Amino acid sequence: MAGKLKNIIEDIARDHLNSALTLRYDICTCSICKNDMLAFVLSRVPARYVTTEQGALHTIIQQHRLEHQAEIGRAIIEAIDIISKNPRHQLKEDKNKVFLLLLDKIREDRGLDFHHYHQDLLKRRVAIRLRAAGINTYSDYLLLLMKSSEEYDKLFETLCINVSEFFRDPEVWEVLKILVQNMIHQKKTDQNHFIRIWSAGCANGEEPYSIAIMLKEILLAETASLRIEITSTDVDKKCLKFAQKGVYLKSSLKNVPKELLNKYFTSEEDGYKIKDEIKQAVAFSYLDLTSADYIKSTDIVFCRNVFIYFDRNLQEQLLMKFSYALKPLGYLVMGKSETLIREAKEIFQEIDLNARLYRKK
C-alpha cells in the first residue's frame, strides 16, 4: 500500500515558527494566529511532497531545512508582522499598552525609567523572566511584581545584562594610552595637576579598573605629581557591589598581560582580586543616565556599549549631558559597535573612528 504524500516544508516551517514565537509575549500566539501565520508562510514557500514510505526521510528533511531556511525565515518574519497586526479575532488586551504599564510600574516602584530604552530589546529581556516564571501575559507579570520583591531583583539582573572584560578591544586601549600620555604632558605644561575621568555605565567595574591600571603604568614614567579621580557610575546596584569587591573570574582577564596580572592582582580561590592600590583609585556610585545628574568638569567620559540600549531621543539627551560634563576639548569614548548620531557632530569632533574617540568642540 502506497504511503501518504506529505509536504515536508510544512513541518520545517512549523518548527521555525514555533521557535520564532517562543519569547513573543508582545503579540497574540493563540492557535488561530499560529495557523494563520503558518498558512501565510506556506503560501510563500513552494511545497515539497514526499511519501511517508520514502527512504532516508530524515536526510531529505534536513537537506530541505538547509536549502529553504533563509526563505522560510523571511516568510516567517513577514507572517508574524502581518498577522499580529491584523488578527482574525478580537484581542483580550492591548499587549503594547500593558507593556508600557509594566514600565510605568517599574519606574514608580524602583525609580528606573526604561521608556526610552530600545523596546524590542526590553521585550526580549522581559520575556525571559515571563518564561522563567511560567507566566503568559504582561498583566500576570505585573501582578507577580506587586507580590514579589525577589522577582524584581531577578528582572533587573536580566534587564541590566553586564557583559564586560578588562581592556575590552585592546586596540582601542592602545589609542587611549597615547591620548592620556598627551593629556598628562599638556597638564604639566599648563601647571594643572588634576585629571577627572567618568566611566558612565561601568557595569561590574572592569572598565574603570582598566583605566586605573593604564594610568598607573603611564605615571610610573612621569615625574609630575598628578591627582587622578576616576568616578564610575551605574544604574545596577548589584553590579556596583560586585565592582567594589573587586574579584573577577579568569575569563574577564584574558586581555590583561601576564606582567600586569601579577602586578595588580592577587590569585584567590574564586578568581583574581584587584589590589588595593588600584581599587582605591576608583570611586563607585549609583547614577541613572536617564536622570538629570552627571559628573562635572570631566576630562574624559567613557560610555562604551551603553548607547545600544537607548533609542535615538535618549542618545541625543545623553550626548548633550556628556557635553555639559566635559571640559572644553574633553574627550568622549564610545563602544566599537556604536556610532555618533548626526546631530552630535555639531558638538563632538571625530578623533579616531576605529576607537570611537571624539573630542568636544
CATH architecture of the largest domain: 3-Layer(aba) Sandwich
N-to-C series of helices and strands: EHHEHHHHHHEHEHEHEEHEEHEEE
Helix content, binned percent: 40-55%
CATH topology name of the largest domain: Rossmann fold
- Beta-strand content bin: 15-25%
Total number of beta strands:
12
Low-pLDDT windows of residues:
none
Q: Give the strand order of the largest sheet, numbering strands 1, 2, ... along the chain.
A: 8-4-3-9-10-12-11
What Rg is obtained from the alpha carbons, in whole angstroms?
Answer: 26 Å
Overall 3D geometry? elongated
Distance between the termini: 82 Å
**Total number of helices:** 13
Give the oligomeric state: single chain
Notes on the protein architecture:
There is one protein chain. This protein is an alpha/beta fold and 361 residues long. It folds into 3 domains: 5-85, no CATH class; 95-159, Chemotaxis Receptor Methyltransferase Cher, domain 1 (Orthogonal Bundle), CATH 1.10.155; 170-360, Rossmann fold (3-Layer(aba) Sandwich). Helices cover 49% and strands 17% of the residues. It is built from 13 helices and 12 strands. The strands form 3 sheets. The chain has a 7-stranded mixed beta sheet with strand order 8-4-3-9-10-12-11. Strands 5-7-6 form a 3-stranded antiparallel beta sheet. Strand 9 (298-303), helix 13 and strand 10 form a beta-alpha-beta unit. The longest helix is centred in the first third of the chain and has 29 residues, at 57-85. The chain is elongated, with a radius of gyration of 26 Å. The N and C termini lie far apart (82 Å).
